[in-house]
Amino acid sequence: MARTSRIEMRAEPERERRIRHAAALTHQSVSSFVLDAASERADDVIAQNAMSVVSDDFFDALLEALDRPPRKNAALARRASQSRRVTQH
Questions:
Q1: What pLDDT is recorded for position 40?
Q2: Which has more confidence, 49 or 1?
Q3: How many CA atoms lie within 13 A of 1 on its CB side?
Q4: Is 57 helix (H, G, I), strand (E, B) or coil?
Q5: Total domains in the fold of the chain
Q6: Distance between CA atoms of 54 and 47, rounded to whole angstroms?
Q7: Where does 1-89 show beta strands of DSSP type E?
Q8: 71 FRET partner, CA 20 to 30 A, in 15, 22, 85, 88?
Q9: DSSP string for residues in 10-23
């Protein structure tokens, strides 16, 4: 795939030296090295934000609540029985 977008950044000299050294050790250009590292980190961040981690106690309570039969909700039943008007924009 052709690379058509550009990302620019500035770095402290020490960080630049480390990045250049690591890129050389992996036989990659600096651009490829940085893009691979940033893409991997982006995937990690996206994955971490795509799920919720809860304690065992919370999860057990949630499953228990989902297994219980539903309670009647009079206000909800009244609202559901009312006629609805749909407005399209």
A1: 98
A2: 49
A3: 3
A4: helix
A5: 1
A6: 16
A7: none
A8: 85
A9: ---HHHHHHHHHHH
- What's the pLDDT at 38? 97
Is pLDDT above 90 for 51?
no
Instruction: Evaluate whether residue 86 is within a structural domain.
Output: no
| Cα 76 versus chain centre, distance | 34
- For residue 50, what are the CA distances in angstroms to 38, 46, 55, 58, 64? 18, 6, 17, 19, 24
For the record, the structure tokens of 45 come out as 């961040």
Give the pLDDT score at 23: 98
CB 23 within 8 A of CB 32: yes
Tell me the pLDDT tens digit for each residue of 52-64.
889 999 999 999 9
Query: What are the C-alpha distances in Å from 15 to residues 5, 10, 43, 45?
Result: 24, 10, 22, 22
